Amino acid sequence: MTAVRFCLVFLLLLVATAGATPERQARLRADVEMLGAPALAGRGSGTPEVEAAADSLAVRYARWGLQPAFNGEWFQTFPLKGEGWTGEDLTGRSGRNLAGMLPGAGPLAERWIVVGAHYDHLGRLEPVAGVAPAPAEGQYYPGANDNASGVAILLQMMREARQATGERRSVLFVNFSGEEVGLQGSAYFVNHLPVPAASIDLMINLDTVGHRQTGKLYVSGVGTAQQLPRLIEAANGPETGSQLELSLAQGGWSGSDHLSFNKREIPVLFLFGGPYAEYNTPRDTADRLDYEAMDGITGFALKLLDAARRQPGTFAWQMVAEKKLTEDTSEPGNRSTWFGSLPDFNEEIEGYALAGVFDGSPAARAGLLKGDVLVLFAGRTITDLPTFTRALRAHDPGDLVEVTVLRDGGRLNFTVALGDRSEKE
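User: That's the sequence. What structure does it adopt?
Assistant: Structure tokens below.
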């Protein structure tokens, strides 16, 4: 009987250390549901609803004892420009970044790590002026995965990171606005920092981390500081209780808020859950997310943050060159990189027209469809099949690339995690 009791206790301890945290999962879901609710109408840039979302988040910051980052204020207001997702003119509207400080201790306390996640999304399918009734289901973009998931994990990290002891860096938690309209919030933030830029050792960005449909967590920016590979390995080691399958990329040039920091020569790590079919649609709802996967990502991110806070010395930014297309068309590039589409050879179409998309391919997982016309690939203009082929071969399997396609008279942006041709059946 004693032996049986011992085995049961051991098994319970094993489960506990394997990251089985239903309370954390419940909190993650509650925060995603709050941000994706009809009352917040998709959190469109410059709308009353995104302002209400920011106010709700600031209550969490204050409740958990953070210090306002902007001279005693939680918010940093900046002017918006350009067009919103549905084409409305943003001139005269403003966005608000929200940031709070978690002090460190000892000699490292004057060094900083930024943890960020954008809280804005696409808003309503049809824009409205001023305050309007909450939209019905299907009339707005809930943005559960993009990026209520990242905000929920950031809030949980904020809650748990307060418990750290010993010598450690300070942390600046930031929720950016204006990400969906061209990284406007993070671009303003890095030019109006509340702490000296030279004191920031690392920026960790959480964007679209609501599930891992490919089974992987994508981490890019690994090459932007010499210490980062070792910190990632330690955070995902056997002693952490649960290991994630990571897909690592050296550069940090994919299109989310970390890009603003990388351009400012601050090391970055971008945590991304992978492409998904509901991207930028009204179907991106809280009930479709994998909260067990989010729990695991939260645990990994917390261990990564803790290790980075305790790392001695400073983090020197390293340049990882953006992928460049060679002008020499004879250069073979990486022929193993896989996108997963069939070309339409209609010569009258300018761009790369997709005659089909392979099931389970990187293109399909990202949400691309037959009939789409790809016109931008990782910032490069695509005019035909040869330019697409050269752009694709300039990248490696596992790279995250931003693509723009024409569909039904509009332009849509997608993040594609490139694969290896060995995956193709």
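Confidence is low (pLDDT under 50) at residues 1-19, 323-331.
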